[in-house]
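Lecture notes, part 5. Sequence design as translation. It can be helpful to think of inverse folding as translation between two languages: the language of shapes and the language of residues. The source text, in structure tokens, appears below.
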């Protein structure tokens, strides 16, 4: 019961209209209504406070010859000074951009101030009316009536504030009139009651109408500013919030932070369970993220699996870090999707304004840079933007610009690393590896430029060049030699990739079974749906398909059962340690046995020692690849490996 009463009075003095039978709202909508109410009050406040100061001065003059003039003079100074100070404060507040959310506490302070001002005027009839002259009494009556009307106008949308302001004045008038038995005063008392009832009724009618109008406006704006799936603000609403924060920064110096989040495993959920499950996952993520924020803040969904938050009124960078860590911690518990528990994760990039920028483009660019570094560090990482990030970002953009013309300028080339067949003790093929010889930077590692190519879409142009060049080179080699080309997830998303392969084979006049496409398990996680049909089409064409880096991905056995692979490649991390760690030994033996049972060829990557080679012979591995067999070499050096001496160099 006590808790219910506490809650009731908290809502009452926060101005919630549902207490008086008005429309009920959730806290988010209530906060927005309070913001609109507060804005109107601030709009009236300068004029109202000026009127208070003038009225106090007029009262002091009218009661100058009253026996209470010393008290009247002191009262007038206090009221006029307070009114002027509050008016100036209100004027400064109006210059700051209107907030989108006002807390209950802020509204309770407004109600308290309304009561204090009303109490100050309620003192006037109770304390000064009896000893005033008839002219002074007339002035008091006019001033109190004017203050009642002015208060009803100023607080026309906030009934509790109007009551808090007018009730002390009504009480003061009642005390004043109660001391006199004059019929005229009793008639005045009756008129005051009627007058007050009419005023308050008008206040309630106006406030209810105002609240419903604001609610309709909020609902209309939601269709433009709300993400239909998660019910969070969308990119448009986020941009508005960011611009408002920048305006407050310029006007009052209020610092803020922007947190940019990206889900680390969303594609896995989407591709494994389908888009409806992916949508359900996003809805659960949105709910958890929003629960982490303060009442006045809203996480926005600004992209497919990308979210952002503007943290206003920031006093310490640690506050932004605490919020980011709460976001990361919210993914600790698994998500329940279609009866399955799924682990999620997020990475967060943070920028601080104005330290990291004072324009929307700069802030979001730097946030994206910080997020990129966080994602590279691994799931669940939080990174602040650093100046070094900006340099790295500029270098990355410069590398991207140079990569755009690298193919046309002839800077890209292929090297070839051999496969050795352990049964026939001969080289049976080569893996084509892409290299970039930059005119200024020198040899750029694939680990640096391939991700850029994938993110920018250049991978399609580069991938087509690789296929054509590999097939053209293969045409000069013996007919029993194959060539393997690595494919990325982005290339499988390109519907024209099949036509590119067909055309390259036709131009080079080579059999399709001499071309092998290598894909990784991580690629399957990203594009599982589209990969199946493309892989089947490749097999129908006669091209062979190999699963690269086997054992390092997710649910490898599922792929072996469902997808048509011709060959699997055991990741070099297992080969490197198979003679040292028993678990690696067991994995290698098991994979080779499994591949034989499934009638899939198996290649061991990263063979560097004779002992490793001998062990793989004993376990009946089909083919091996590594520095012991041969390092990547240029096309003109490959022909030297085809003489009989080199083809049988690894014979037992």
């Amino acid at each position: 019961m006590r808790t219910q009463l506490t809650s009731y009075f908290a809502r009452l003095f926060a101005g919630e209209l549902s207490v008086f039978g008005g429309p009920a709202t959730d806290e988010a909508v209530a906060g927005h209504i309070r913001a609109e109410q507060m804005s109107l009050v601030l709009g009236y406040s300068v004029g109202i406070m000026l009127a208070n100061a003038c009225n106090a001065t007029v009262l002091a003059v009218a009661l100058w010859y009253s026996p209470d003039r010393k008290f009247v003079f002191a009262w007038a100074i206090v009221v006029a000074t307070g009114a002027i100070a509050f008016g100036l404060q209100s004027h400064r507040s109006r210059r700051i951009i209107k907030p989108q959310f006002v807390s209950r506490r802020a509204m309770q302070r407004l109600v308290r101030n309304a009561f204090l001002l009303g109490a100050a005027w309620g003192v006037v009839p109770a304390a000064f009316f009896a000893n005033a002259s008839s002219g002074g009494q007339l002035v008091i009556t006019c001033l109190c009536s004017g203050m009642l009307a002015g208060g009803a106008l100023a607080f026309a949308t906030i009934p509790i504030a109007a009551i808090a302001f007018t009730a002390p004045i009504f009480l003061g008038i009642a005390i004043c009139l109660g001391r006199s038995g004059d019929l005229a005063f009793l008639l005045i008392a009756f008129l005051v009651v009627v007058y007050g009832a009419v005023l308050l009724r008008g206040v309630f009618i106006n406030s209810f109408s105002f609240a419903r109008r604001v609610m309709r406006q909020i609902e209309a704006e939601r269709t433009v500013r709300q993400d239909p799936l998660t019910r969070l603000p969308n990119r448009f609403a986020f941009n508005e919030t960011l611009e408002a924060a920048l305006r407050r920064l310029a006007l009052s110096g209020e610092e803020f932070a922007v947190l940019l989040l990206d889900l680390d495993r969303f594609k896995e959920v989407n591709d494994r369970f389908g888009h409806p499950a992916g949508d359900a996952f996003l809805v659960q993520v949105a709910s958890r993220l929003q629960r982490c924020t303060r009442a006045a803040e809203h996480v926005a969904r600004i992209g497919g699996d990308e979210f952002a938050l503007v943290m206003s009124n920031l006093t310490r960078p640690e506050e932004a870090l605490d919020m980011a860590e709460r976001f990361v911690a919210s993914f600790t518990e698994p998500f329940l999707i279609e009866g399955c528990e799924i682990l999620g994760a997020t990475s967060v990039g943070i920028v601080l304004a104005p330290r990291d920028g004072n324009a929307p483009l700069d802030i979001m660019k730097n946030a994206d840079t910080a997020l990129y570094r966080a994602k590279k560090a691994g799931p669940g990482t939080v990174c602040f933007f650093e100046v070094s990030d900006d340099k790295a970002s500029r270098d990355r953009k410069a590398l991207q610009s140079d990569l755009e013309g690298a193919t046309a300028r002839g800077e890209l080339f292929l090297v070839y690393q051999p496969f050795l067949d352990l049964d026939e003790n001969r080289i049976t093929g080569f893996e084509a590896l892409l290299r970039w010889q930059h005119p200024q930077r020198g040899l750029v590692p694939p680990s640096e430029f391939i991700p850029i190519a994938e993110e920018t879409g250049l991978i399609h142009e580069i991938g087509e060049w690789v296929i054509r060049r590999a097939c053209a080179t293969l045409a000069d080699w013996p007919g029993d030699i194959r060539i393997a080309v690595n494919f990325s997830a982005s290339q499988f998303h390109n519907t024209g990739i099949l036509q590119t392969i067909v055309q390259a084979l036709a131009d080079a006049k080579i059999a399709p079974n001499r071309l092998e496409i290598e894909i990784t398990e991580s690629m399957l996680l990203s594009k599982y749906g589209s990969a199946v049909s493309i892989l089947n089409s490749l097999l129908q064409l006669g091209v062979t398909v190999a699963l690269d880096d086997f054992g390092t991905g997710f649910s490898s056995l599922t792929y072996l059962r469902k997808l048509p692979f011709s060959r699997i490649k055991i990741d070099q991390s297992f080969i490197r340690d198979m003679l040292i760690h028993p678990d690696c030994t067991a994995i290698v033996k098991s994979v080779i046995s499994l591949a034989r049972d499934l009638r899939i060829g198996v290649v061991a990557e990263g063979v560097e020692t004779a002992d490793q080679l001998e062990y793989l012979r004993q376990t009946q591995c089909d083919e091996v690849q590594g520095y012991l067999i041969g390092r990547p070499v240029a096309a003109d050096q490959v022909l030297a490996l085809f003489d009989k001496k080199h083809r049988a160099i690894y014979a037992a």
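The translated text above is only one of many valid answers, since several sequences can fold into similar shapes. The radius of gyration is 38 Å.
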